[in-house]
Amino acid sequence: MTRTGDEFVEGEACLLSDPKDREFLITLDSSKTFQFDRGTIPHGDIIGCPEGSTVRSSRGVLVVAMRPRLADHVLRMKRGAAVMYPKDAGALVTWADIAPGCVVVEAGTGSGALTLTLSRAVGPDGMIISVERREDHAKHARRLIESFAGAVPDNVDLRIGEVEEVLIGLKPDRIVLDIPEPWDCVPIAADVLSGGGGFACYLPTVPQVQQVREALSDSRSFSGSATFEILMRSWTVEGRSVRPDHRMVGHTGFLTVSRKSLREPAVGSTAQPAL
After folding, report:
1. Residue 231 within a domain
2. 193 and 116 in one domain?
3. Does the structure show a pLDDT above 90 at 47?
């Protein structure tokens, strides 16, 4: 993995920013030239330069070259399936309590955006088992993950199939679902998760949210269920002019999180089973 300030090399991603703060994501190839309305920049002028360098276009415009952040990659990559926005992925990691060392089963892989976020969150001692039912999406996700990370991270296991089948025999710490019908997974999630294990899903519509919440409640195996959405509004700061932007990233999806509770009271306890 490269470190901040390292020199750019052939084949890696580069984020170019012009004086108007417009950003362009490219993959460095010494045989190619970047073109925009303010001139051209041969990729070779960037390769070998340290991150943060300023390069000059053919029309004399200064452009800053940086490595893309994960958020940059997610928002600008060529998508297959829809991606979870960074604002939602960050909240999911926090509220699902995905931490270093966790074993997480994810479905579906989609374009690999959330997979990369989860991989960072669990660290080298954790593991992400990411399941995608569509082979075309799985192949596209692998390409996008490799384009950002250089290779599929060692802590990511990409699989094709049905998540219900993959979960058989596993004991994950967390289950994260970005699929149309996550309620179908609630019964097996209740079986494979240990007490305190986390269940999380991402859904676009209210009827879907209602159905997964009903499934969690009917299972009598989960508690602390919560559903919420994240709204993001950026601000313009130009001298004394400080104001909210006229446009914002509003509703993109609903996050639902819950935790596995045990039906039977602990040995020696007089408490009643959870209802």
Report:
1. yes
2. yes
3. yes
